[in-house]
Amino acid sequence: MTIPIFQAAETDNLDEVKKLLEAGTDIYTANFDGETLLHMAAKCNSMNVLNYLIEQKMDLEAKTEGYEDTPLQIATQEGQSEAFYALIKSGADINTENIEGETPVFTAIRFKRPEFLEYLLQNGADGNHKNKAGETPFTIAVQFKSTSLTKPLLDIHVDQKVNGVSQEEIKKLMSMPMSSRASTTQTPEVLSSEVVSARNKNSRGYDDPITLLFEYCITNNFKELEKNIEGVNVNKTFFDNETLLHAAVENNAYECVNMLLDYGANINAQTKTFLEPPLHMAILNNNHEIIDLLISSGADLELQNAEGESAIFIAVRTGNVELVKTLISKSVNINIFNHDSLTPIFAAISLHQPVIAKLLLQAGATASLGRSNCFSHAMEMGEQDICEAIRESDPSLARAAMNTSNLDLAPPPQQLFNYIRQKNIGGIRKILSNRYNLNLEQPDGLPLIRSIETGNFEVVKAIVNAGADVECSSGKELPLFVAARMGNEKIVEYLLQNGADPRTINEDNENALFPAVRSNNVHVVQLLILQECGLDHVNNAGMTPLYNAVGLRSLPIVEALLAAGADPNNQGHSPFKLAQDLKMTEIINALVSAGAKAQIKRAPRRTRQQASILALSQPMRLKTPLKPEHGKCSICGTKKHMLKLIPCGHAVVCRECLEKFVEKRSQCPICSMGFYATSAFN
Q1: Fewer beta carbons below 10 Å: N end or C end of the chain?
Q2: DSSP secondary structure, 427-473, as one string
Q3: Domains and CATH numbers, the chain
Q4: Which helix (H) or strand (E) is 651 found in, with range?
Q5: What is the CB neighbour count within 10 angstroms for residue 13?
Q6: Beta-bridge partner residues of 207
Q7: Which residues are paired to 250 by β-bridges?
Q8: How confident is the model at residue 503 (pLDDT cuts 50, 70, 90)?
Q9: pLDDT tens across 143-187, in order?
Q10: Who contacts 18 (Cβ-Cβ below 8 Å, separation ≥6)?
Q11: pLDDT tens digits, residue range 429-440?
């Protein structure tokens, strides 16, 4: 279902956009791809809308969900020159990075936009920037073997080193005449066999037959695809692990899709970044013919993408009622969790899809599953019909939601959590221009905790600046603990600067140094050491930070703690004994150098008279109490799916009973050693 204001932006209907904004539509409304109105205007070259949004000071650096593209990168991909130049002249960052660490320069090369590439470089874009794979723009341009893409880079004297390509090959490429540059706005040409033949002879850009097949799939030139497909590996991948089938589906090339399936294309191949299979792409394109073809050809309906979402989620997000019905008839899992612990019915409520929500409920969707109360969420979204449907299917859920509501407080809207997950700074600031109680725990948790979990410093900063309490806790999860657990030095330092107390103790009797040690990040550990948060503090399991560091076999952290004065002979479990058990020679030496002593316990001596008095005054006990059997669950008695405790290594609990075991014990029932983790027992 298209959002009305997006439809207006797509058609450059500025009057309608203004009308909807005046009626209360949020200017930072995002679609299911995380695209803002500015992204849509840039994509469609809707210049009236785009210029208006720029005048309204809309965030030029807002990023989409998944690929994290800015409006400038979208305009570059689509070849929309007016939008491209307008965004740059308005101050868009020409060196901004997407999820792959690639700037607009990379985008211009990958989408063959030589004019854009020249303009970016002439205006100061970094020509030697490296993406997350360590590749430079020149590395990518050489792979395309196009002089129109390599020459602008050479003109600014970029580094010409390319792994796997000799300087002689690069010189040959540079000696070739500049290839003609197609208009950035023209539609892709359909290549005839004569054109292909000529290009094969005169251009190094078409040496690889798979390159031709990709172009045929993109343009739906199934006749040429049929002529050239014999003997070619149709499952070879290109950028982002896309296959020919992905290209054909993405470009609605039905005939090519059909042919590729006949030639053995992997129907469930997934892309690298978003883990998208062809079926998900077809659903997003709303191409019913290709959807039906893929489903009838055996596409996996339960395959999950990088967000943990299967086909039913994608169908819900696109508002495809008929497809939802089809998938329900195929008995797909309608209660599947995505990586945010949310279900399809929660997505339907979020997107104001009452028809789909009711279909899911009628098919047996459980509204009480997941991290959030669906009834509360439906109330927040103003979906009274869905509330009524949930009330009929699960009255207890509705009662629980009503009992926990507090009308005296003003919690932040759900959209804030969506923007936090999307790392949409502009959207967050827009919402926080109004005052909300950011310290009230919501179904999605605390805004500050969720912000820290994104790892994005600017998001955390925006939430703290809006009034979030850096000491506000969610259970045993304190903001500083979460940042320390994630090993995020910058956020830890910021929280400390804003008043987070490193000596605060959680319900496990641990300070922030414990999760910092477990993050295995020595820099975060050193940062907290400087705060004097308690080097020798002992938690409920009898462990110190030093003991944890030894258990993790982390020599750098052990050395950092000892250098700061941690006592290797402190009360609690012995780090020295653990290091001996783990046979970690370097750690043993470090502990000995710091004064660690082997702990030898002797039974106290008693006289014969004392022993006889003790025997008469105390009941007889077994000298050695019965202990659980190693390799057998101490709760249910099974020997299947066993887990061993770390660090002692005793296997006394199975995977199914782990939660009960942890509730009852903090020490191993065999050796009484405290444990802090488990691993599979072979």
Answers
A1: C
A2: HHHHHTTS---TTS-BTTB-HHHHHHHHT-HHHHHHHHHTT--TT--
A3: 4-175 (1.25.40.20), 193-404 (1.25.40.20), 629-682 (3.30.40.10)
A4: strand 651-654
A5: 17
A6: none
A7: none
A8: confident
A9: 766 678 888 998 888 887 765 555 665 665 555 444 333 333 333
A10: 52
A11: 888 777 678 888
